[in-house]
Structure formats: C-alpha cells, structure tokens
Design a protein that fits this description.
mainly beta, 7-stranded mixed sheet, elongated
C-alpha cells in the first residue's frame, strides 16, 4: 500500500505566498516522477509542476517564475512553493507520485488540498 497526503492549502491574498507539501509513505522501492496538478470548477485538470528523481523540473507556463517544486528523496516528500499567487491560482492542488514497488510501477494520487486566492 502507498499513501499520499497533501497539506498546506488555505486562503491567501493576491500577491501572497503559500507552500504545499506532499508526503508519500508505504512499501516504496523508488519514487520516480512526482507531479503537482490543480483543478478548479469547470476546468480541466492542469499539470502545474513536476520533478524527476534526478531533479529535472518542468512547469506550466502559467506558473513559471512564481512557483518552485522541490523534493526530498530521503523523506519521500515533494513541496510546491507558490509565490505571488493570483486569483486564477485558486484550485484544488493534488500530488501524484509515480511509484516503483517490489511488484509494480504505478501512479498514486492524494485527496488534494484547496488553495483559495482572494482578498
């Protein structure tokens, strides 16, 4: 079993900052790509940022230069530092981990954490 828990969401004013965290636990041999997604009502899920086990990062154009993804391979965590947030960043943010166990490789996702940007 693999469990993913996101935390750090909440209400923040435009221009403010927020840090999301994602913790992965269970019978894990290796965490491969870890990705933050977001989805707001009426919109498709959007890839926000991803990071490989080797540290290669990708960002959606809408968050480049504002958001930073980082991971701690020793702790099996991935964080998303969100700076200069805007109302359009309001969404449920969820973490997806590409996990290699002793018997399989598959993706696991968490329940998500709500981020609301409003004055």
């Amino acid at each position: 079993q693999v469990h993913i828990v996101e935390s750090g969401g909440g209400l923040v004013q435009p221009g403010g900052s927020l840090r999301l965290s994602c913790s992965v636990s269970g019978r894990i041999r290796s965490l491969l790509i870890m990705t933050w997604y977001r989805q707001s009502p009426g919109k498709q899920r959007e890839m926000v940022a991803s990071v490989t086990s080797g540290g290669n990062k990708e960002y959606a154009d809408s968050v480049k230069d504002r958001f930073t993804i980082s991971r701690d391979n020793g702790k099996n965590t991935v964080d998303l530092q969100m700076n200069n947030v805007q109302p359009e960043d309001t969404a449920v943010y969820s973490c997806v981990a590409d996990v290699l166990t002793s018997v399989s490789r598959r993706s696991y996702g968490g329940q998500g954490t709500q981020v609301t940007v409003s004055s």
